[in-house]
Structures are given as structure tokens and as C-alpha cells.
Amino acid sequence: MSPCLSDTPALSRRGLLKFSLGASAFLATAGLGASLSGCSSSVPANGFKALRSGELPFLRALIPVMLKSAVTAEQMPDAVEGTLKSLDFNLDHLSPEMLKLTRQLFDVLGMAVTRGPLTGIWGSWENASADDIRRFLNRWQNSSLSLLRMGHSSLLQLVMMAWYGRKESWAHCGYPGPPTV
């Protein structure tokens, strides 16, 4: 007779909680370490108000994967840049605490020491293929760690809100635009 899941110490509720707490502490420490060590500059990238230059390679790799079915290949470069501008605007209008949390997420994804183990992408974001990024997103979406699932949800919401807030996205989803008053 095989043991049930509650009989297996590694899969017990207590074990999962301990592991989740440890992973949360690790991610928080990595984000704080990046902030304190100067790895994450607080200076916005040229032409942006909130996005930093270290975040742009990740976002330029992520956005085309997320917008693939909504944008043609010819329109993708403009869609990526427009989405970055919208995302920058949205981040610039977040509360300081929410911006801090978002930056910690970007820091964890930008640091090689955390990016590889957490995403499966061991090289730079510029060298990651669309399939690599899809695997990373799927990995986080289906993770047993709630922190990674929340990270996936945050990334998805940030990018989708930035994209669907733009007028050029409306036709694809059948939205005629706001009513004229």
C-alpha cells in the first residue's frame, strides 16, 4: 500500500509552509541585496520616468511573448515600445510601496544568481528564446510556491494593463473605444 501525501514528510503541509517561508526569505534577501549593493539603480532609464535600464532587456524579451497572438510580427516593435511607455506611466503612478515591490520582482529577475534557478534562464534575457520565456512563465504559473505564482500574476497584469490601455490594442479585442460625450 502506498503512503498518502500527508504521511510523506516532504509533502506535508508543515514542510510546504517551511519551504515557502524559506523561499520567501531568500527572494526578499536577494531583492534587498540587489538594492543595497547598487545592482539595481534607482535612476530611470533615458526617456523613462520609472523603468530602469536594467529592467528593459527583461521587458523587451517578455512583452513580445505575451503579445504574440494579439500583434502581427510587423507591428511588434512598435507594440513593445508603446507597451513599455504605458508600463512606465503606470509604474510612475503606483504608490511608493507597490513600486518598491515591483522593483524587487524586477531585481530578482534581473540578477543572474536568482534568475537562473528561479526562471530556468541562465543567460541574459537578450539571449533567451521565446520558448525559454514561455517555459519560465509556465513554470511560475504552475509553481507550488505561491510567491512565484504571485510573481507570474503580477507580470501578466502589468504587461496586459499596459498593452490593453493603448488605443492600438482595442481593435484586436473588439473594443470600439470609450464613448464620446
Q: What is the element layout, followed by pairings?
A:
Blueprint: H1 13-37, H2 56-67, H3 76-92, H4 96-110, H5 112-119, H6 130-141, H7 146-164, H8 167-173
InterPro entries: TAT_signal
Protein name: Twin-arginine translocation pathway signal protein
In words, what does this structure look like?
This protein has 181 residues and is mainly alpha-helical. It has one domain (11-168). It is 64% helix and 0% strand. It contains eight helices and no strands. The protein has helices at 13-37, 56-67, 76-92, 96-110, 112-119, 130-141, 146-164, 167-173. Helix 1 packs across helix 4, helix 2 packs across helix 3 and helix 3 packs across helix 7. The radius of gyration is 19 Å and the shape is globular. The model has no long low-confidence stretch (mean pLDDT 86).
Which structural class fits the helix and strand makeup? mainly alpha
pLDDT averaged residue by residue: 86
* Helical run tally: 8
Largest sheet descriptor: none
**Span between N and C termini?**
70 Å
Kindly estimate the percentage of residues that lie in beta strands according to DSSP: under 5%
Proportion of helical residues: 55-70%
How many separate domains?
Answer: 1
Spell out the helices and strands N to C. HHHHHHHH
Q: Flag low-confidence runs.
A: none
The count of DSSP E runs of length 2 or more, i.e. the number of strands, is 0
Q: Tell me the overall shape.
A: globular
Q: What's the Cα radius of gyration? A: 19 Å
